[in-house]
Design goal:
Butyryl-CoA Dehydrogenase, subunit A, domain 2; 12 helices; binds flavin-adenine dinucleotide
């Protein structure tokens, strides 16, 4: 059933769904197996305008908004959680930050090529010793007469080693802790930058992930996004947007696992009947149904709030973290239950369930772990009590 989408949003959903089913699905298993990021497919998604939902027409976008972006992301992630990540990098992370904090020059230079996928985006907060506690990062940016010099390294960065443009967070004044963090818009081909692939990981094999080393990397003064010291504020703004993308991807995975389990439960015969006739299997499917429906509604609500910030009265963070937390847990639950419905056939690689099972686990870590989302959610209640 449709969810009161506008005609435009429904058309976008159908286009993304058709693309996922007709262009991505036929090669998804082979690409995952070989760890291939199919750039031709990504370029086609760019040509269809799927990465242009946030930006105004003058930069090549449609400005349909975060709900539209979430709908498209969900549909692609349903077939390929790996290519779902691309939506985050091209759109929710880099473009949203540039649109809100970038100069006109930065926007004109980078947004059109991110939409068409002629440029590949990334954002880098995480380091080997810095995960949830982002303000403890060690990458530094030393100011010089004509710019800044970056030194340090980043870990677990999506889009690496293919990224051509990145939002790099570094400390310009470590004494000031989070107030000493600055966001830089960096050409990832700048001398001194090395991007290394992380080839061994549990899932998302068609989504490149890697490490970035910065060794005396000279960036100009106009690489600063906002002003020095704005980095933490920009990171929190960005994480609201990237968490929404993650929530949309996880809702897509939860939905796909439900659909696959429903199909298999109808087809699989044991004790002379379809296993869907057994009440315990029905219980599993009913719970998966409720979980993914709830996850989707939370994504749509959070995205609607993001598109209607004034009407919704303030920051979207509580609703974003709710959707992100619930989506991640629902996707893991759905993949786990689907594995049980498929039993040994789920454990094998003939069916895609084990892929979703592996990919779903990423949602509990990326863009802030499930614990961190619960902390953010609960912090709202403490503040409310004080007032
Ligand atoms: C596939 C993949 C892609 C990624 N892409 C990117 C990217 O593009 N850019 C980027 O910057 N990062 C990226 N990351 C990194 C990811 O965002 C971090 O791994 C994540 O934020 C968690 O950090 P950590 O792994 O260091 O865990 P830690 O912070 O070390 O946490 C370890 C455990 O302690 C818990 N914990 C920590 N602090 C608290 C607390 N205050 N309260 C309760 N529990 C707590 C956590 O919940 C977790 O269970 C990616 C990671 C993966 C796996």
């Amino acid at each position: 059933m449709d969810f009161g989408f506008t005609e435009e949003q429904a058309m976008l959903r159908d286009m993304a769904r058709d693309f996922a089913q007709n262009e991505i699905a036929p090669t998804v298993e082979a690409d995952e197996e070989k760890h291939v990021y199919n750039e031709a497919l990504v370029k086609k998604m760019g040509e269809l305008g799927l990465f242009g939902c946030l930006a105004p027409e003058k930069y090549g976008g449609t400005e349909m908004g975060y709900l539209a972006a979430s709908i498209a992301t969900l549909e692609i992630a349903k077939e390929s959680p790996s290519y779902g990540v691309t939506f985050n990098l091209q759109m929710n992370a880099v473009q949203s930050v540039l649109l809100a904090f970038g100069t006109e020059e930065q926007k004109k230079k980078h947004i059109p090529s991110l939409i068409t996928a002629d440029a590949y985006g990334c954002f880098a907060l995480t380091e080997a010793d810095t995960g949830s506690d982002v303000a403890s990062m060690r990458t530094t940016a030393q100011e010089t007469a004509d710019g800044f010099v970056l030194n340090g390294s980043k870990m677990w960065i999506s889009g690496v080693p293919l990224a051509t443009v990145g939002i790099i967070y570094a400390m310009t004044d470590r004494e000031k802790k989070h107030r000493g963090m600055t966001a830089f818009l960096v050409d990832m081909k700048t001398p001194g930058i090395e991007q290394r692939a992380i080839t061994e990981k549990l899932g998302l094999h068609s989504s490149p992930t890697g490490e970035i080393i910065f060794e005396d990397v000279k960036v100009p003064k106009d690489a600063v996004i906002g002003k020095p010291g704005d980095g933490f504020k920009i990171a929190m703004f960005m994480l609201d947007r990237t968490r929404l993308s993650c929530a949309a991807r996880s809702a897509g995975v939860a939905e796909k696992c439900f659909e696959l389990a429903k199909k298999y439960a109808n087809e699989r015969i044991q004790f002379g009947q379809s296993i869907i006739n057994f009440q315990m299997v029905q219980d599993q499917l009913a719970r998966m149904w409720c979980e993914h429906e709830a996850a989707k509604l939370l994504v749509f609500k959070a995205a609607w709030i993001m598109d209607n910030l004034e009407k919704a009265g303030g920051r979207p963070t509580l609703h974003i973290s709710t959707a992100k937390y619930y989506g991640a847990e629902s996707a893991v639950m759905a993949a786990n239950e689907a594995m049980k419905v498929y039993a040994s056939y789920g454990y094998g690689t003939e069916y895609p369930i084990e892929r979703y099972y592996r990919d779903a686990k990423s949602y509990q870590s990326v863009e802030g772990t499930s614990n961190i989302q619960k902390t953010i959610i609960a912090r709202n209640f403490i503040e409310e009590k004080k007032e």
